[in-house]
Automatic annotation (TrEMBL):
Gene3D superfamilies on file: NAD(P)-binding Rossmann-like Domain
One of the Pfam families matching this protein, by short name: adh_short_C2
SUPFAM superfamilies assigned to the protein according to its UniProt record, in alphabetical order: NAD(P)-binding Rossmann-fold domains
Protein name: SDR family oxidoreductase
Species this chain originates from: Natrarchaeobius halalkaliphilus
Assigned protein family: Belongs to the short-chain dehydrogenases/reductases (SDR) family.
InterPro entries: NAD(P)-bd_dom_sf (IPR036291), SDR (IPR050259), SDR_fam (IPR002347)
PANTHER family: 3-OXOACYL-(ACYL-CARRIER-PROTEIN) REDUCTASE, NADPH-DEPENDENT REDUCTASE BACG
Domain of life: Archaea
């Protein structure tokens, strides 16, 4: 299916790796011109190189999404390069795993800036440009933890719900000009999940990487964890006119793990 994204302009935040990169790839393969960003110049350059040959152009901008000036520059450079902005996709670095008693006030504020304010700033800066697009969309990558708290992931469980509250609200405020949706990944094999499994191997929870993946997959009806492409393609669909009546949705991409 042609998603009719050719020539559209997209900005994907926190996208030099993992789910952000997979979303940028799916959009660029559909012919959208895409800006990717991240803090590490090396990681950003390898991500840009990976996207070489996609149908759309790719602009790589070094930026920290917890800095509002960087977010503003990211949007400006995208609009300057591609002549507008049609699709905003937000991702962010994951907060550290911690229990309540291990978490102090600074951790709470840092998680809030990373997970919520980065999205608020990106929307504030993008909105005037999305309004000029005939098909403006906002898609936020959050987590299944907005529906089911995961043990030891206090900050993700608590703070990410601000993003789904935001999406529910703006999907009504910004419609019909701009559609806004959220995707809720379950367990998808990205560097973040690889690090998590490696840490559990070091602490003796798993024997090896394969053992870790099997354990993570054990409760998933699809009997495996997801591939980044499987999330990226949903993000491209939600950005496309083929999802033109999908607005305010919170779509789990978790192989059926959650029951609600
Ligand atoms: N993978 C999963 O199964 C899963 C499940 C549920 C939720 N999530 C959530 O989805 C998000 C993405 O996860 P992922 O698996 O794609 O992680 P990942 O593979 O570690 O990628 C994170 C990306 O974000 C960039 N980034 C991190 N902090 C940034 C910042 N302050 N400014 C700009 N870029 C930043 C990283 O590059 P730099 O470090 O170079 O900046 C990297 O490109 C996270 O919030 C994660 O918790 C993931």
């Amino acid at each position: 299916m042609d998603l009719e994204l050719t020539g559209n302009a997209a900005l994907v935040t926190a996208s030099s790796s993992g789910l952000g990169l997979a979303s940028a790839r799916a959009l660029a393969e559909e012919g959208a011109n895409v800006t990717i960003c991240g803090r590490s110049a090396d990681r950003l350059e390898s991500a840009r190189a990976e996207l070489d040959g996609a149908a759309g152009e790719v602009l790589a901008v070094r930026a920290d999404v917890t800095d509002p000036d960087d977010v503003s520059r990211l949007v400006t450079e995208t609009v300057d390069a591609f002549g507008g902005l049609d699709h905003l996709v937000t991702s962010a670095g994951g907060p550290p795993s911690a229990t309540f008693i291990e978490t102090d006030d600074r951790d709470w504020y840092r998680a809030y800036d990373t997970l919520v304010m980065s999205v608020v700033w990106a929307i504030e800066e993008s909105r005037p440009h999305l309004l000029e697009s005939p098909s403006g969309t906002i898609t936020c990558i959050t987590s299944r933890t907005v529906r089911e708290a995961a043990d030891g992931l206090l900050l993700s469980n608590a703070v990410r719900r601000g993003v789904t509250g935001l999406i529910q609200t703006i999907s009504r405020e910004f419609a019909p000009e701009i559609r806004a949706n959220a995707v809720l990944p379950g367990t998808i094999e990205t560097p973040r999940i690889e690090e998590l499994v490696e840490a559990r191997i070091e602490s003796g929870v798993y024997d090896d990487y394969r053992d870790g993946l099997e354990d993570l997959a054990s409760e998933i009806p699809m009997e495996r964890i997801g591939e980044p492409r499987e999330l990226g393609e949903v993000v491209a669909f939600l950005s496309s006119p083929h999802s033109s009546y999908v607005n305010g949705a919170e779509l789990a991409i978790d192989g059926g793990l959650m029951r609600n």
